[in-house]
């Protein structure tokens, strides 16, 4: 394995990486294997901030569409679910010896610190994995947009979207088995072709702030480490 090319990395972990494929909730063994990957990256030297999703527990848009719960409340429930995932990840990383902090955009004073940019920077500079929970704190957003926002605020050199597919495809690979995997694609092409790997707000924010994105499969061991060494893996989204 080569050397880390980045000083500060923001890792977006899909909520679904906390459970077995097709299941819900948090699977202890799956979480331990994700934490091992995070620690492997930390040992390579970069400062690591993590934004956690909550697709393993609740997505506001789907929940409001399929129940009587209004979208605003469903989205707040989704943001609370990211705090549950963040606390589970924190305990797992710390059990393995990695210092961490959880900072949340929604205040849950008994469990975590509030998100304050300067405090997040202080923790990163102190070598703590800084887990950013509670999304943006606003409904009608997603944790992808939150990841792009925090990467911009914290001057991250790279945003890694760690998900359950191998990268960006010409179409949703779960629906179209003929979809082609890109090794590289521009921000503009993702937006123009309407590719739904991430929200377009997230892509636009990264484009405007010059932050490259690598989309990769979290379930394949060594993928994140390869990404931060600049080895070819997943799909790089960057300038044309
Ligand atoms: N063009 C595309 N290329 C790759 N994946 C795509 C594309 N269009 C849609 N997808 C879908 O996007 C999904 C990736 O997003 P993911 O499910 O990880 O969601 P998330 O909202 O980031 O995380 P969470 O699980 O926390 O909700 C893939 O499972 C894939 O089916
Ligand atoms: O800024 C935000 C971030 C998230 N939400 C809600 O949380 C869930 C879970 O996040 P995912 O990105 O889908 O994993 C999301 O569906 C929203 O309901 C939010 O409201 N604001």
Automatic annotation (TrEMBL):
The entry summarizes how activity is regulated as: Inhibited by UTP.
What are the entry keywords? ATP-binding, Cytoplasm, Kinase, Nucleotide-binding, Pyrimidine biosynthesis, Transferase
Residues that coordinate or bind UMP:
75, 136-143
Q: Which GO terms describe its cellular component?
A: cytoplasm
Recorded hits in Pfam families, A to Z, give: AA_kinase
InterPro entries recorded: AceGlu_kinase-like_sf, Asp/Glu/Uridylate_kinase, Uridylate_kinase, Uridylate_kinase_bac
Report the main location listed first in the record: cytoplasm
Give the enzyme's main class according to its UniProt record, as a single word: transferase
Its annotated compartments are: Cytoplasm
Q: How does it assemble?
A: Homohexamer.
Q: Which family does it belong to?
A: Belongs to the UMP kinase family.
**What's its job?**
Catalyzes the reversible phosphorylation of UMP to UDP.
> Under which name does UniProt file this protein?
Uridylate kinase
Q: What is the lineage of its organism?
A: Bacteria, Pseudomonadati, Planctomycetota, Phycisphaerae, Sedimentisphaerales
State which gene encodes it.
pyrH
């Amino acid at each position: 394995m080569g050397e880390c090319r980045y000083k500060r990395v923001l890792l977006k972990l899909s909520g679904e990486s906390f459970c077995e494929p097709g299941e819900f909730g948090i699977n202890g063994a799956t979480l331990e294997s994700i934490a091992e990957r995070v620690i492997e990256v930390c040992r390579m030297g970069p400062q690591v901030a993590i934004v956690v999703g909550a697709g393993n527990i609740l997505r506001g848009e789907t929940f409001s569409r399929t129940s009587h719960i209004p979208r605003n409340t469903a989205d707040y429930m989704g943001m609370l679910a990211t705090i549950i995932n963040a606390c589970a990840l924190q305990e797992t990383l710390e059990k393995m010896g990695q210092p961490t902090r959880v900072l949340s955009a929604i205040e849950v004073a008994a469990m975590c610190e509030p998100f304050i940019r300067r405090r997040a920077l202080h923790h990163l500079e102190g070598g703590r994995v800084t887990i950013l929970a509670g999304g943006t704190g606003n409904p009608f957003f997603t944790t992808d947009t939150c990841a792009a926002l925090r990467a911009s605020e914290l001057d991250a050199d790279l945003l890694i979207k760690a998900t359950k597919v191998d990268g960006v495809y010409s179409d949703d690979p779960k629906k179209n088995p003929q979809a082609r995997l890109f090794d590289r694609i521009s921000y503009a092409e993702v937006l123009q072709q309407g590719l739904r790997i991430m929200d377009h707000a997230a892509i636009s924010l990264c484009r405007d702030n010059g932050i490259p994105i690598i989309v990769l499969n979290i379930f394949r061991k060594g993928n994140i480490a390869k990404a931060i060494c600049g080895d070819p893996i997943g799909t790089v989204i960057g300038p044309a």
